[in-house]
# Entry
Amino acid sequence: MRLSSETASQLPADIARPSYDRSAQKTGIVHFGLGAFHRAHQAWYTDLAMDAGESDWAITGVSMRSQSVPDQLNPQDGLYTLTERSGDTACTKLIGAVREVLFAPEQGEEVIERIASPDCHIVSFTVTEKGYARGETGLDLGKARASFYPLLATGLERRRERGLAGITLLPCDNLADNGRVLGALMREWLSVEAPQLLDWFESECTTPSSMIDRIVPRSTEGDLNALETQLGMEDRGAVFTERFSQWVIEDNFAGPRPAWEAHGAQLVSDVAPYETAKLRMLNGAHSLLAYCGLRSGYEFVHEAVADAEIGALAEKVMREEAAPTIAPAPDQDLGAYAGRLLERFADPALRHRLSQIAMDGTQKIPQRWLDTALARMNEGQEASAIGEAFDAWLWHLEDGRFIDDPHGDELAGLVLSQGREAVIARCFGGGGAEPPLWPGYEALAAAFSN
# Structure
């Protein structure tokens, strides 16, 4: 038996479930990239809001490339369970916020119509850094045509033609200043593909920045099998996560929104201090643990942070290297934040794989390590923990077993044929006619050279 609207009533009594009538909810949110993180984070917050009495915030998910998420959730009528873990305890809840998942290559017209509906007020995104199709100097139009831009622009054009109000475009990816970035890229797309829409977009739509934080490991077969025994039925869309969750959102919406702040989200005027702390401290330490941990033969975050040497490096990169480069908001205690992060990393219940964190290093390293290192250099300070982490990343390219990166094949081939200095030149500049992968960080090349 598989989880669905028909079978949900047969779940064990201790599984919390939505109190609202799912069939009566209109779709207020279209979300691109409805993977495990969105289901454990933004959809969870939205489910809490509707459970508290708000209505018409059901979510239509959009999968741009993979049929797997539609196959997981559509036969279950969008239902899935979320299990929060901490130490030896776990709590499972049924989430009802997701109505459907559309597969964009085959259902593009349906995606456009959901965006163009008067019921829709927010389009949100967890498409990873790659999904924004940024090139060296701005939008890469070729890549953008395979991303969300054409569907979104067509949906917005129909709204304009129908005399509807604009909507909020809410990015939720680990991308510095993600609202400003999305707004600028969207304007580039419109200026080329739909210039008649530019003025309407500027006056009617907003792109607030946000910062998201919740550790969501990949579900394993063991996780799913144990859950099936617990539920008495199969849930192919299940997600497992930690108890902690954080969502900081710039209060700049074009229209209605759920009262997410009543359920723990923070609405602020400036997301930057929270975002910078997360990128440089949490994500910076995470990437250090990933590459140093894999080099030492570990598989999970809790194993790597328990290693005395690697754990000390992670703490150093947060407290001594990253934190002094951050101007905190009045309510931010960066020392306490570092302590809480170390506790979260050490929790064995999460089983967060280092190889998952190690993915897409060329996309992540600038904001996670290089911004800190550059700020330290400008103050005449070293960043030795980041230097050790960078050395482990180079090992990761040499080793080759865990590489999952858009430039992985190129850099792995380069390091094996010409050595580490060739990789450094390709990334920072000085590697020939091609522009560097990390423009703006040329001054750090010498610091990371052997």
